[in-house]
Amino acid sequence: MDGGALFGKCVACHGQNGEKAALGKSQIIKGWSSAKVMEAFHGYKAGTYGGAMKGVMKSQIANFSEEELKALAEHISKL
């Protein structure tokens, strides 16, 4: 599973290296551990995590498998 390829869906809002606050509202994800990213992903899916971007992120990751989320989290942790 290529987390870098999956991250292509995220670049427009989060930046090439996770350096941007998505739409000026989210946290900057660069520097997050894979565990922190997975916690956020699971929270988005459950509807229990996130502020202004909660709904957007829930729909963005809704169709990702657990394996894809893990690969994406690992990629983000290395940005």
Write out the CATH superfamily name.
Cytochrome c-like domain
How many separate structural domains? 1
CATH T-level topology: Cytochrome Bc1 Complex, Chain D, domain 2
- CATH class categorisation: Mainly Alpha
InterPro entries: Cyt_c-like_dom, Cyt_c-like_dom_sf
Keywords: Heme, Iron, Metal-binding
GO molecular function: electron transfer activity; heme binding; metal ion binding
Domain Cytochrome c: 1-79
3D architecture notes:
This protein has 79 residues and is mainly α. The protein has one domain (3-77): Cytochrome Bc1 Complex, Chain D, domain 2 (Orthogonal Bundle), CATH 1.10.760.10. The protein has 5 helices and no strands. It has helices at residues 3-7, 11-14, 34-46, 54-61, 66-77. The longest helix is centred in the middle third of the chain and has 13 residues, at 34-46. The two termini are 17 Å apart. Pfam families: Cytochrom_C.
Structure at a glance:
With 79 residues, the chain is mostly helical. Helix content is 53%, strand content 0%.
Write the layout of secondary structure elements.
Layout: H1 3-7, H2 11-14, H3 34-46, H4 54-61, H5 66-77
Helix pairs in contact: 3-4, 3-5
Short descriptors:
53% helix, mainly alpha, 5 helices, 0% strand, 79 residues, single chain, Cytochrome Bc1 Complex, Chain D, domain 2
